[in-house]
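Chapter summary example.
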Amino acid sequence: MKYRHIDGQASFCVENQEVAITTTVQSGCTMPYFKLDGREICPYWTAPWWKDGAYLDGNNILSVLRGNFICVARKEDNNNPEHGWCCASPWEAVEAVSQADEARLELRFQEPYGGTIRKTLRAVAGQKAVYETNLLSGFAGNYSISNHPCVRLASKAENGYVAFSEPDSLCTPRFFLETPEGGGYMLLARDEAIADYHSVRSIYGDTLDLAYHPAKPGTFELLGAFHRQQFVYAAYLNREEGYLYYQIKSTRDFPYIMLWMFSGGRHYAPWNGTQSPTLGIEDCADYPAFLKNPGQYNTFVTLQPEQSYRFRQIYGVAALPEGMTKIESVQFEADGATFLGNDGKRVFAPFDWSFLKDR
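The structure predicted for these 359 residues follows.
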């Protein structure tokens, strides 16, 4: 097994000619380093407090916070760590393969109640993509389950662009989860269904285009989206570094998306007003209960111990053509997806759809 020590954390590592996949031993946070045009690109964010040890007790996801991690949190359990035991405990390696044509890492975690997660991360030649599967077995009860990619942003909002499949609903929280008295500054009007992502009402009386993030520095916000179509994309275009990040899912695994938009709006430890913004594009199996719920969406997932449950995600990067500044639509192709931008610009990302199809 090969390890890398990255930003204060020991990490499992496998690689092929397209990507080095690293996952922290503690909490299982994945940071892929894609090999793109002679550069190494990681599209994910790392919380900045790792540098000064501000919150490194090892018993909370905040001590490691970075990359893409799975949350499996047992509902109505006061002893449950934030985002579940899998985010507050070490994972163990089962198998690691590093070859020119394939990289594969299999990890295992067992929660105190007996449930087991088998995480498989795989990359193949010719595709700058990671195929992630989290297979849950032996779990019993009601859970909240989601994959949490924390996307690293361009230094200026106008140099990035956020896009995702047209949702059937897009809603703000029903109430303020945090207030200035407690050190939290939220952004958008409460309990609203959003008709246009490019024109969203804030609590300050203006309207914001949420394709550009951070929309308003010094704030944070949450949005929930529901999609009926089976395959859904989300993407972030980074003009400063010349690449497009994308993630693809099946709504049979994850029917919902929660957008976690952080741009400095938390003035308490370990955040302490940090101006290191990130965008969480969280693929969720259940709908967060604090959001406006226009469709009686399920706010938890009931797991049976005799059954296994598979949650899959594809994520990767592609080089941007000169002058592409936004994503206007996407065409799903037989062997990947074409992201269509302004002035006829386009980006093709190859990947294997069969990974997401039921089997």
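To summarize the output: The first strand starts at residue 2 and ends at 6.
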